[in-house]
Amino acid sequence: MIPEIGHFALILALVIALVQGVFPLLGAHRGYASWVAVAKPAARLQFLMLLASFACLTWAFLQSDFSVLYVAENSNTRLPQIFKFSAVWGAHEGSLLLWALILSAWTAAVTVFGRSLSPLMMARVIGVLGLVATGFLAFLIFTSNPFERLLPAVAEGRDLNPLLQDIGLVMHPPMLYMGYVGFAIPFAFAIAAMLGGRLDAAWARWSRPWTQIAWVFLTLGIALGSWWAYYELGWGGWWFWDPVENASFMPWLAGTALMHSLAVTEKRGAFKAWTVLLAIFTFSLSLLGTFLVRSGVLTSVHAFAADPSRGLFILLFLAVVVGSSLMLYAARASKVRSHVRFELVSRETALLFNNVILVVTTVSILLGTLYPLIIDALGAGKISVGPPYFNAVFIPLTVPLAILIGVGSLARWKRDSFANIWVKVRLAFVASLVFGILFPLVAMQHFSWQAALGMVLAFWVFFSSLKVMKEYARGRGIGGLSLSQWGMTFGHVGVAVFITGITLTSIYSSEKDVRLVPGDSFSLGGYEFLFKGTTHLQGPNYQGDRGEIVITRGGEPVTVLYPEKRNYLSGMPMTEAGIDAGLTRDLFVALGEPLDNQGAWAVRIYHKPFVRWIWLGALIMSFGGVLSALDKRYRVLARRERAALAGGVA
Amino acid sequence: MMRHLFLPLLLLVPLLAQGAIEVHQFDDPQKEKIYKELIDELRCLVCQNQNLADSNAELAQDLRQKTYEMVEAGKSKDEIVDWMVARYGDFVLYRPPLQRNTLLLWVGPFLIFLVGVVVLVRFIRRRPAGGEEVLSEEERRKAEALLRGHGEDGA
Amino acid sequence: MKSRYLIPLAVFIVIVGFLAVGLKNDPKRVPSPLVGKPAPHFELPTLYDPEEKISPEKLRGKVWLLNVWASWCVSCRAEHEVIKRLARMNLVPVYGLNYKDEEADAKAWLGQLGNPYEASLVDRAGNVGIDWGVYGVPETFVIDKKGIIRHKVIGPVNDEILRETLVPLIRKLNEEEG
Question: Is the pLDDT confidence value at A271 over 80?
């Protein structure tokens, strides 16, 4: 019964989405106020319907209703409750329903928080979002229905993949989707503005906080995935340039460019047409990501069940949404472009250069990701493109980007000079060189020029951010900084922390696979690892061995780690690494295989300096994004606009 | 209906291949370094996008063993790469070789960067010479009102 | 409308075109670099007569097939009927490469399902398989009279492949000079 209700709610949602898409857009075009007024109620009703549908599917999981095919494929009566809940989005159909739900939630949020928008603008934004939702819901219902029945019902479902039974992986997809889907909002704003034929600084101000919040979610989602991969998969890696990872990183890069471009459009009214194009580009990358993950065109450990017919549907959807947006852009861009003057040396130029680098990076990653497919399609061979390529391309591009953070945030708007900027940055510049070169010399095992370069950049970003704060605080004191300024500072400091983590862990990590018998000791990174043997282990749905490793440093006890090797009843072996997390280093131990009957084991030992700084940096960046989005000017001006609207000026 | 169950089941398997922990003795740390680089850059042919280092698949184990033997025998990195490519083609390399069908791949980002810089420079040069944009009457009145009473904008 | 604003649309259309073609291709299919090259050398014992050693050099002068199989391979069962039919056509000798298998299991499997092979070569460790670029089971190679690999079938041979690809190719190769 409940699944039927869920299914019905889903179908209703599709109908409402269609109404939400068609009527407000036509109404805004023709001037029918009653049609325009359909936007808000339709958006909110669609959200309620999808919430109900999602709740029904969740109920089916929690009740272990195996008459629903999707539940039978992804759940099991012995699965702990929390994982029954997260199994809802564990595979293709359910994750799409989550996508649609999140889209409707964002749309409904726009109707609530966007009350200062003119009714026409609101109608167009909601209308565009309605059309996007229609496409998704149609895809769901016609090709990927989560409520499809399995009759007769089985007594026990297949288990959820043990790798997914983890809290990190519970949170990772919803965070990512909040980000991906969130970029639909600036996209809708951009389309609405082009449809209306008018683009002013107010448009940028409306779009900006939405973009920032979406960006924050995407940052957290990616960081969660990286952190999860590190502790769960057992080989100490945190990024693989896998196509699906790239599919999340590309919108992030484009979204970062978009955020910065919106800043210029808001402040100076410049880059309007470019910002619109970026908004389309960012959301297109979100949609492209959806296509790549679910169509089977690329091989990935993350890919959902590949089905070319589904792939075709998504491709058509992508072609229609992005194609029509770009056609609209081609038609309207010349009308909305800015004619704002600024000099070659100015903050505008710096931000434009920042955009160029971010877009070049995004396109390069896209090239690398799609290249095997392109070459195969041309019949020109079968190749693979992996981390060696992406690292070779990405890392050099971060150098000018990091330099620009300092230069751009200290340059004045409209007109500045190299001399002026130099006066502001010279102290930070010198300090970065000194600290950056000294750090690997003094604090790390050995000196490396690559590490020095990375640290110089990290210190540069950090010191220049401090300088920016000092400039803003001039005359006002540190308490006078706006949230937006704090946000920018934290955002950039987060980047510095991130660069530090990546540089140091990439260069100074050490790893060893060794054969240890109980009583053996091994040295790595200045620590002693004493293997005390293994004991047998029995879990609810697995059995295995648990090792004990005592770690000391210079004779002083540090910690004891208990890595496990589990064999699940479903037949799958899993390694649970023992990790001693620390701010300046992680110690990581994993059990391999027993090598003989006398208790000898293959053991992997890692020493990873500063690896936590990678995710710490992402957290700090996200915090900065949240602060920026909360800046009171959005609320103050919004309040004023609402009053103006109420006063009868459309 | 069986297809529904079969495909996801197939895809579950590679997800579970976790880092293969094996012990290899090397008589020379340089050889160990080459070995690690190789198994990082060689692709597992039967996995869903994993290198030889991370895969538990049997073929990956065999190829790691072969790599170890060749490294110990003193073969260079290039020789071992050629050996793998002779049998499995370019697909087995995560670092695409520089050849005709990968020229665009390796040169591409640099070209795109150049295009980006050129477009940027031309965009800046095209700025309207002289004078600000002129405000319309209405905009001027709004500006004056703002300056008079409500100037609290921050960054 | 200035033409430069159409550039993003044009680029997008090209990308969609590639993606559409990509939907038809299998990204995991690895074509063999050995097609057109001499068959890699091996010298292996046969399953039923370990004293008899076979190598590609001994098979010069005739067209032959090498079918990689194993008793633990599920798809090999489905393919086996087709291989048997091919062998019965008497167009070409079919040699099996028993890949990473146990002798007892292999013999039992053939006993149960039938043995179409002239001989099955035993590749216990899988080294010959690696030399031939085998990455999955089953796979089938077509070698001509001069000892050059002319074709590789990845995955099970079905009726369609047999009819449309293998038989015409074998007939053509049989006409060629040795």
Answer: yes
Min CA distance, B153 vs chain A (Å)? Answer: 7
Yes or no, beta carbons of B102 and A301 under 8 Å apart = no
Are residues A50 and A132 both part of a single domain? yes
Average confidence (pLDDT) over A51-76: 93
Q: Which residues of B touch C27 (CB under 8 A)?
A: none
Residues 530-549 of chain A whose Cβ lies under 8 A from any Cβ of chain B: none
What kind and span of H or E run contains C167? helix C167-175
Answer whether residue C28 is part of any domain: no
| Mean predicted confidence (pLDDT) in A195-215 | 88
Distance CA B11, CA A244 (A): 15
Task: Write down how long chain C is.
Answer: 178
Q: Which amino acid is at A463?
A: F
Q: What is the mean pLDDT of residues B137-150?
A: 71
Q: Which residues of A touch B5 (CB under 8 A)?
A: 73, 158
Say whether both A619 and A549 belong to one domain.
Answer: no
Torsional sign, CA A147, A148, A151, A154: negative
For chain B positions 19-58, those within 8 Å of chain C (CB to CB) are 45-46, 58
CB-CB under 8 Å, A342 with B22: no
Query: Do residues A4 and A109 share a domain?
Result: yes
Put simply, whether B2 touches A (Cβ < 8 Å) is: no
Domain boundaries, position A7: 1-165
What's the pLDDT at C171?
Answer: 94
Note whether A19 and A113 are same-domain residues: yes
A129–chain B nearest CA distance, Å: 31
Number of domains in chain A: 3
- Measured from the Cβ of residue C107, the count of other Cβ atoms closer than 10 Å reads 17
Is the ipTM value over 0.90, yes or no?
yes
Q: Which of A110, A139, A165 is the last residue of a domain?
A: A165
Q: Which of A112, A140, A165 is the last residue of a domain?
A: A165
Same domain, A555 and A634: no
Q: Is residue C13 part of a domain?
A: no
Number of domains in chain C: 1
Task: Assess if residue A151 is contained within a domain.
Answer: yes
Residues A495 and A637 in one domain: yes
CB-nearest to C23 from A295, A326, A330 is: A295
- Assess whether A585 and A626 both reside in one domain: no
Chains that touch B (3 or more CB pairs under 8 A): A, C
Give yes or no for C23 touching A (CB within 8 A): yes
Question: Least CA distance to A605: which residue of chain B?
Answer: B21
pLDDT attached to residue B154: 38
Q: How far apart are CA B71 and CA A523, in angstroms?
A: 25
Please tell me if residue C90 touches chain A, with a CB cutoff of 8 Å: no
Question: Structural domain of residue C134, as residue ranges?
Answer: 33-175
* Interface touch A352/B116, C-beta < 8 Å: no
Superfamily grouping for domain B13-95: Cytochrome C biogenesis protein (1.10.8.640)
> What phi and psi, each to the nearest 5 degrees, are found at residue B35?
-60, -45
Evaluate whether A225 touches A248 at the Cβ level (below 8 Å). Answer: yes
Q: Are A554 and A535 in the same domain?
A: yes
Q: In terms of CA atoms, which chain C residue is nearest residue A329? A: C5
CB contact residues (below 8 A), chain C span 91-120, against chain B: 100
DSSP conformation letters of A195-249: HHT---HHHHHHHHHHHHHHHHHHHHHHHHHHHHHHHHHSS-------HHHHHHH
Alpha helix ranges (H) inside A234-307:
243-268, 272-295
Residue A559 lies in a domain: yes
- pTM, 2 dp: 0.92
Model pLDDT for residues A93-117, shown as the tens digit of each residue:
999 999 999 999 999 999 998 877 8
Nearest to B17 by CA among A566, A296, A242, A573: A573
Q: Please report, for the domain that includes residue C112, its CATH number.
A: 3.40.30.10
Q: Is the pLDDT of residue A136 over 60?
A: yes
What are the tens digits of pLDDT across the range C29-58?
999 999 999 999 999 999 999 999 999 999
At C1 the pLDDT is: 55
